[in-house]
Write a structure and sequence with these properties.
six-stranded parallel beta sheet, single chain, Rossmann fold, 15 helices
């Protein structure tokens, strides 16, 4: 099911369903002792279906809840995105519910399975990480958890999803999303009792753990690089992630720009190998960049590396140039230096954690044009926020860093 279809269903079916179930939620909450006590976080379910990068960004918040409240953690996510939870292994595999979204029938069946799964796991608390999704609010209700924590708009117009969330936190669009996630966890632990997150962050709240690496996997990745470029010996590896997910295709920097930067670096630095990355479905798109570069030290690895080999690949590489997408966040759990191209979104809210990321961002008056308020949808076709980033600016910074 494509993203636009999901948005339409969330709006036209989600709004009336949220209105319907809000009445039941308010009635149950009124007669419940839970409204007079701090949430029971002993078995807490996090819901984040659509964003792979967010599964990394929320990791500090999840570890905080486990560390300070001794909570047992669970997670619900779309099946195609579930691999992102394996990067840091904070959630045990049998505590992950993988929801299918191939079509409406598969989605409906998954919802039924989700209800049964929540009963089996005895979920006591749900934390909805999605930004005003009606669908995930309904999932919170169907989980039968007494304590449902999530974002609310309060005095902001629109973004209606009823009152299913009975421990609401005002979403702050002016701070990093990782800070908002910490606020949800602080609310769950009873550190403040109103919708406004008045508790400041403490040292370590946004600390991101590093991925564990195995020698076997590192050797496998080295062998694959050698297979892509048989004469590879001491060349430094530079990764170019040239695509972005279909969730927001406006984030893509032009293929010819990636190729222009690649040519400049390869001409000036004879000791680097550029490995372009991507999924198997992106191989043709990635190959076009390789063809435009036209250099033997630029190779196409789309589909070559398994997802669980990415952190090893990142650890063996010197830097990555990437669109604003999942790999920027996956790499943040490794020492890799990452240069991220931001366009319709802003690094102030979605910059990778970890301290190794650097952004290219024009900050036009229209930027960012996607937000929680429009469910991250834009119809801008010219995309000057991303297409206007000149290759000369990028290559100059990369050359300076390489030197």
């Amino acid at each position: 099911m494509n993203v636009d279809s999901m948005r339409k269903i969330d709006k036209w079916a989600g709004v009336p369903l949220c209105f319907l179930f809000s009445g039941l939620s308010r009635l149950a909450h009124f007669f419940s002792f839970s409204r007079r006590s701090a949430p029971d976080t002993s078995r807490t379910l996090f819901i984040e279906l659509s964003e792979m990068g967010s599964a990394v960004i929320v990791d500090p918040a999840m570890r905080k809840l486990r560390r300070e409240a001794n909570a047992e953690l669970f997670f619900a996510i779309f099946k195609d995105n579930a691999k992102s939870l394996e990067i840091l292994n904070t959630i045990p595999p049998d505590h992950i519910f993988r929801m299918r979204s191939d079509n409406l029938f598969a989605l409906a069946l998954s919802m039924i399975r989700f209800i049964a799964w929540c009963r089996k796991k005895k979920i006591t608390c749900v934390i909805d990480l999605e930004l005003f999704s009606r669908f995930t609010a309904l999932l919170c209700f169907f989980s039968r958890a007494k304590y449902r924590i999530g974002f609310a708009s309060f005095h902001d117009e629109g973004l209606y999803r009823g009152s299913i969330i009975n421990y609401p936190v005002r979403y702050n669009p002016h701070v990093h999303v990782a800070v908002n996630f910490i606020s949800l966890v602080n609310r769950a632990m009873g550190k403040f009792d109103n919708p406004y997150a008045t508790v400041p962050l403490i040292e370590g709240d946004l600390h991101l753990e590093k991925a564990e690496l195995s020698d076997t996997r590192l050797e496998t990745v080295r062998a694959k690089i050698k297979n892509l470029y048989p004469s590879w010996s001491k060349e430094r590896v530079a990764l170019f992630n040239v695509n972005a997910s279909d969730m927001l295709p406006q984030r893509r920097w032009q293929q010819e720009n990636f190729a222009a930067v690649a040519r400049e670096l390869l001409d000036q630095f004879p000791d680097i190998l550029i490995v372009t990355t991507g999924s198997p479905a992106e191989r043709t798109y990635v190959q076009r960049v390789v063809d435009m570069t036209g250099h033997p030290r630029c190779v196409n690895s789309a589909g070559e590396f398994q997802f669980d080999e990415l952190t090893s690949l990142y650890s063996l590489s010197d830097f990555m140039l990437t669109n604003d997408s999942g790999p920027a966040h996956f790499a943040s759990v490794t020492p890799l230096k990452v240069f991220v191209l931001f366009g319709p979104e802003t690094p102030a809210l979605y910059g990778p954690l970890g301290g190794n990321a650097e952004s290219f961002y024009l900050g036009l008056p229209c930027s960012p044009c996607v937000s929680a308020a429009n469910h991250r949808k834009t119809t801008c076709l010219t995309r000057p926020c991303i297409t206007g980033i000149p290759p000369q600016m990028v290559s100059a910074r990369l050359k300076s860093w390489l030197q």
